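Appendix C: a fully annotated inverse folding record. The material below is reproduced so that readers can follow the format used throughout the book. The structure is listed first as tokens, followed by the designed sequence.
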């Protein structure tokens, strides 16, 4: 039996808020003991409304924030949150909601992609550039894009660049934090299809953070629903969508507009028909 790519055991994160003259200090339990195991080539979608703890969880498993307690194992190796090695940081990469905010506007795209290799390997410049050009092609961009700057690209193209950069170090898994929520509907469908194609080609493992159950229905193998720091439901995609057990999950279904790939295509077709 193969070792899981990611194991999370009783992970917790507390925040201490300062008190005031009439307000005592208190502890906010942002994440309250999360457990899950994720195998290679699978996608776990973490779903919930703003403030549910999903982004806090993402920051812990990407080794940005230190958990209050609990364990994280990557490729079977325990993470020491106080002394994270460079090798361990290379094993996990993140793609944010706003790609423009995570791209240096003064760097050409070729340099953006090659930078992780420059900082973390001894690879010669020519090989770094070759790898960057190859990855650019993998995400559907052209060779002439190599020497352009971030402001010269559309939002969807910038998200493709962010995905390419995240894959440059061959990470064990990728955290995708609301990667399509800031994009137009047609572009959302393109990015979701790209993520699926890359996963099939490279055997990628994803943790997909979202508030939109309709989007994760297309991308996820498993769905974990969070509510005020607690996991209230965790099962296969088909089980959660076919027969949600928790009342909060059912309320999310009722409140979320359909924005999966097929619904997006149907909506665009209706819009085109009305324009004729």
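Designed amino acids, in order:
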């Amino acid at each position: 039996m193969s070792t899981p790519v990611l194991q999370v055991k009783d992970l917790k994160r507390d925040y201490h808020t300062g008190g005031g003259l009439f307000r005592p200090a208190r502890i906010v339990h942002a994440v309250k003991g999360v457990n899950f195991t994720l195998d290679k080539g699978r996608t776990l979608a973490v779903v919930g409304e703003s403030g549910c703890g999903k982004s806090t969880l993402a920051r812990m498993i990407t080794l940005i924030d230190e958990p209050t307690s609990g364990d994280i194992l990557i490729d079977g190796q325990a993470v020491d949150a106080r002394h994270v090695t460079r090798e361990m940081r290379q094993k996990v990469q993140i793609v944010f909601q706003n790609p423009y905010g995570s791209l240096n506007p003064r760097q050409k795209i070729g340099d953006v992609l090659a930078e992780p290799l420059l900082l973390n390997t001894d690879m010669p410049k020519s090989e770094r550039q070759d790898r960057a050009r190859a990855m650019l092609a993998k995400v559907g961009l052209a060779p002439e894009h190599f020497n352009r700057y971030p402001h010269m690209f559309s939002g969807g193209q910038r998200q493709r660049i962010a995905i390419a950069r995240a894959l440059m170090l061959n990470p064990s898994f990728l955290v995708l934090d609301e990667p399509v929520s800031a994009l137009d509907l047609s572009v959302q469908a393109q990015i979701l299809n790209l993520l699926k194609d890359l996963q099939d080609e490279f055997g990628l493992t994803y943790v997909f953070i979202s508030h939109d159950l309709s989007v994760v229905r297309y991308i996820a193998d498993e769905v974990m629903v969070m509510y005020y720091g607690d996991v209230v439901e965790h099962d296969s995609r088909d089980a959660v969508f076919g027969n949600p057990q928790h009342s909060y999950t059912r309320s999310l279904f009722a409140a979320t507009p359909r924005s999966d790939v097929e619904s997006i295509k149907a909506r665009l077709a209706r819009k085109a028909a009305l324009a004729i």
